[in-house]
Design brief:
Helix content is 49%, strand content 22%. The protein is α+β, with helices and mostly antiparallel strands and 177 residues long. Helix 5 runs parallel beside helix 6.
C-alpha cells in the first residue's frame, strides 16, 4: 500500500529541490516512489503541475519499441523488413504517445489542482506517493527544506515524526487532514 504526503513550501523553488533530493534517495534505495509531482502557484496565482514521470514520452518510447519489433516481423513476412521497421516505429510511437497521454495513474491531477488553490501565491508544494520509506534515513535529509504538511495518509506516529522533522527547521505550525 502506498502513502500520500503533501508538503507546501514558502517559495516556488523548494518543492523542486525536495523532489530532486527524493529521487537521489530513491537511487540509494532509501524510499520507493510510486509517483511524485511538484505544484507551483506563481506570482499571478496560476497553478502549474510538474509531473515527475512523463507518461507521453514513456508511452512513445514503449510504443516505438514494440512497433519496430512487430513491423520488422511483418516486413520479414512480406519480404520488406526495412519498410515494416519504419512503419512499425512510426505507428507504435504514435499509439504509445496517445496511450501515455490518456493514461493517468498515481496522484489525481484534479486533487492536486484543488490543493494548489489552497496554497499561497508565490509558493510551491510537493505531492509524493511512496510505497516504502526508511524514515530514520530520509527525515534527516528533509530537515533543511522545512515545509508545512498539508495532507498525509501516514500513520499518526509517522506523520508526527515527519512534522517534527519539518518543524525543527523553523517553519510555522503545520496542519494535516
Amino acid at each position: 500500500m502506498s502513502d500520500l504526503v503533501v508538503v507546501s513550501f514558502r517559495d516556488e523553488e523548494t518543492a523542486d529541490h525536495v523532489l530532486n533530493k527524493l529521487q537521489e534517495m530513491q537511487k540509494e534505495h532509501l524510499l520507493d516512489l510510486e509517483d511524485a509531482c511538484v505544484l507551483v502557484r506563481d506570482s499571478k496565482g496560476k497553478v502549474h503541475l510538474k509531473q515527475a514521470v512523463d507518461l507521453v514520452k514513456i508511452g512513445a518510447l514503449r510504443g516505438a519499441t514494440w512497433g519496430v519489433m512487430f513491423g520488422t516481423l511483418v516486413g520479414l513476412l512480406l519480404l520488406n523488413p526495412l519498410a515494416g521497421l519504419a512503419t512499425g516505429a512510426v505507428v507504435g510511437a504514435g499509439t504509445g504517445a496517445l496511450s501515455g497521454a490518456l493514461s493517468d495513474y498515481g496522484i489525481d491531477d484534479t486533487f492536486m489542482r484543488s490543493m494548489g488553490a489552497k496554497i499561497e501565491v508565490g509558493s510551491s508544494a510537493i505531492f509524493v506517493l511512496v510505497r516504502r520509506v526508511n524514515f530514520d534515513k530520509v527525515l534527516p535529509e528533509l530537515k533543511p527544506f522545512g515545509g508545512t504538511i498539508l495532507k498525509t495518509s501516514l500513520t499518526n506516529d509517522q506523520e508526527e515524526r515527519l512534522r517534527k522533522a519539518l518543524d525543527n527547521f523553523g517553519s510555522p505550525g503545520a496542519t494535516a487532514s
